Amino acid sequence: MFAAANHLCLLNSVLRAVNLGTVVLDTECRVVYWNTWMELHSGRSRDSVLGQDFFAVHPELRGHRVDAAIHQALRNNFPSLLSQSLNKAPFPLFARSNAVGRTERIQQAVEITPIEVEGTARHCLIQISDVSVAVGREKLLREQAMVLRSQTFADGLTGIANRRHFDVTMEKEQRRAKRGNTTLSLLMIDIDNFKAYNDHYGHQKGDQCLIQVAAALAGMLKRPSDLMARYGGEEFAMILPETDVEQAKLMGEAIRQRALELAIPHAHGCCGDRQITVSIGIATQLANAAVDVSMLIGAADRALYLAKRNGRNRVEALLPGS
């Protein structure tokens, strides 16, 4: 008798020490066990819930996934492990039951298991684990991965997309244009006489110029699919999906005007402007006339060279293969 009492005392101590929520329901969904962890995180004492209908204690769970899992356990002897991604915090449980406002629930992993008790009807065990730390760590890792990705695909000076980002996006958009039989335009943009600017004003001013021009031109993008990238040195590239030749020319002219509006002084600027200007070369892949990426880039480069040769501070366009 003494050994049995000691065993029961030990069992109760173990159950109180278990670091997860433990609830047992009878076949009528009445609460027959509510452990210390549940008291701590729900703010409900054991005495206030024992014998109560579980869905009177937690009416917000009725008709949802927990409700279905409990009835599957009691009626069909079927265990359930609730998806944490779909059921992040079904129970109103908090890190501290007396927390002010109690607005942010702990993140939960919930397992519901049927229990066969000799001489009685089937019962249901609900186990709730606090996975907030794991979820927080996963969120932090995702954020760090996003930061790393942005650093990998961003130009260190200007903050816009870098050459690697351009290469990846160009391949993706070219394949998409080919599949959908849509147009794709590429603009190569070069700051005129930039070497002379660097030589005259110094590299620090040159860097400031690049940052200012990049920010202004990137701000002209209207769609999430458009991309502005630093192609190299003082040269930039703009990818415009589903954009035909005429639309690309309009964008090119708007870019040229925007560069003039910046009014960045340049003692050796072209055309007597004495300020920073840009030359732009455009190449467009026509619908139903897919070309490879290298041909599209080559055509845009040739168009840019043509703009330079024809006096700079201008826009020229060529079709791939021309």
Q: How would you briefly describe this protein structure?
A:
The protein is an alpha+beta fold.
Keywords:
322 residues, alpha+beta, Beta-Lactamase, Alpha-Beta Plaits, 2 domains, five-stranded antiparallel beta sheet, five-stranded mixed beta sheet, 11 helices, 10 strands, 44% helix, elongated
Describe this structure as you would to a colleague.
The protein is α+β, with helices and mostly antiparallel strands. It has 11 helices and 10 strands. It has helices at 2-17, 36-42, 46-49, 54-57, 65-76, 132-152, 163-180, 194-201, 203-218, 245-262, 293-309; strands spanning 21-25, 31-34, 80-81, 108-115, 123-130, 184-191, 227-232, 235-241, 278-285, 315-318. A 5-stranded antiparallel beta sheet has the order 2-1-5-4-3. Helix 8 crosses helix 9 and helix 9 packs across helix 10. The protein starts with a helix and ends with a strand. The mean pLDDT is 88.
Draw up the topology in text.
Blueprint: H1 2-17, E1 21-25, E2 31-34, H2 36-42, H3 46-49, H4 54-57, H5 65-76, E3 80-81, E4 108-115, E5 123-130, H6 132-152, H7 163-180, E6 184-191, H8 194-201, H9 203-218, E7 227-232, E8 235-241, H10 245-262, E9 278-285, H11 293-309, E10 315-318
Parallel strand pairs: 9-10
Antiparallel strand pairs: 1-2, 1-5, 3-4, 4-5, 6-8, 6-9, 7-8
Helix pairs in contact: 8-9, 9-10
Structural class: alpha+beta
Output the helix-strand order: HEEHHHHEEEHHEHHEEHEHE
Strand tally is 10
At CATH level 2, the architecture of the largest domain is 2-Layer Sandwich
CATH fold-level assignment of the largest domain: Alpha-Beta Plaits
Number of domains: 2
Strand content: 15-25%
In the CATH hierarchy, what is the class of the largest domain? Alpha Beta
Head-to-tail CA distance between termini = 100 Å
Helix content: 40-55%
| Spatial sequence of strands, sheet with the most strands | 2-1-5-4-3
Number of helices: 11
Mean pLDDT: 88
The biggest beta sheet reads: 5 strands, antiparallel
Low-confidence stretches: none
The geometry reads as elongated
Radius of gyration: 33 Å
CATH homology superfamily of the largest domain? Reverse transcriptase/Diguanylate cyclase domain
